[in-house]
Automatic annotation (TrEMBL):
Identification of the protein by name: Endonuclease/exonuclease/phosphatase
Any one Pfam family match given in the protein's UniProt record, by short name: Exo_endo_phos
Organism of this sequence: Zymomonas mobilis subsp. pomaceae (strain ATCC 29192 / DSM 22645 / JCM 10191 / CCUG 17912 / NBRC 13757 / NCIMB 11200 / NRRL B-4491 / Barker I)
Keywords, ordered alphabetically: Endonuclease, Exonuclease, Hydrolase, Nuclease
UniProt-listed GO biological process terms: GPI anchor biosynthetic process
UniProt GO cellular component terms: membrane
Length: 249
């Protein structure tokens, strides 16, 4: 990962909104592929940084589900994680940020897997504050989920600078406190965003937002609107965050 983090006084008063959304390749509960519905949901959420899962077609050239020009028209920039010019992300994982944000560096992680999986890490400056965002879509197998979380944590330990860290994605885990979540460091916590799957009648907390030390939670939840219920088989989850006073001293 290449970094460009110059010393900047951090601002604990500025808040950001983050979100995670498995867009299911823009195929809704009516089995229609409609990228415009996904973009409408993104407008409704109005987040500073959004982690997407299943953002590319799975087969063929794996082209992006959301048109690049449409993403820009809706006020977002995508982090250039893909190795293919037609794709949006890495193993379907993508990060969208507001045009005013600046990407400081990014990395693609290959994860232990039963089926092709990966995770993404990007350092992004938002309103003067650098943050570290991780996006992931974990395996259906509990054994591999644990190995994948361990790989993500190990990668974080090797990064050259500690930053306020947010992990987001589809963890494919129904239980709230067990399984792969038990591997998180003691100073990381999974937020109580709520059930997000299936979108038309959510009962499973498959999607997660996890925050590291130095971050204050202001609010979080599931974005459950009529269009979100139709646009994908998952509902988006979101959180409003700020830096704790101790992290900016």
């Amino acid at each position: 990962m290449a970094y460009d983090i110059s010393p900047t006084p951090l601002n604990s008063h500025y808040t950001i909104k983050v979100a995670s959304y498995n867009i299911h390749k823009a195929i809704g509960n009516d089995q229609r592929r409609d990228p415009e519905r996904i973009l409408t949901v993104l407008d409704e959420i109005d987040a500073d940084c959004i982690a997407l899962q299943e953002a590319d077609h799975r087969f063929g050239n794996r082209r992006a589900v959301l048109p690049f020009e449409a993403i820009k028209a809706h006020g977002y920039t995508y982090i250039p994680l893909s190795l293919r010019s037609c794709s949006l992300g890495w193993h379907g994982n993508a990060l969208l940020v507001r045009d005013s944000a600046a990407c400081l560096g990014y990395e693609r992680l290959r994860l232990p897997r039963l089926e092709p999986r990966g995770a993404i890490i990007s350092d992004i400056r938002i309103a003067g504050n650098p943050w570290r965002f991780i996006g992931a879509h974990l395996d259906l197998s509990g054994l591999y989920r644990r190995r994948q979380v361990a790989a993500i944590i190990n990668s974080l330990k090797q990064t050259p600078q500690d930053l306020p860290t947010v992990v987001m994605g589809d963890f494919n885990q129904w239980r709230k406190r067990f399984g792969c979540l038990r591997l998180l460091p003691d100073d990381f916590r999974a937020l109580p965003t709520g059930a997000s799957f299936p979108a038309n009648r959510p009962i499973g907390t498959l999607d997660r937002i996890i925050i590291g030390p130095g971050i204050k939670l202001l609010a979080c939840g599931v974005h459950n609107t009529p269009v979100a219920q139709k646009a994908s088989d998952h509902l988006p989850i979101w959180a409003t965050l700020s830096l704790s006073a101790s992290s900016v001293l």
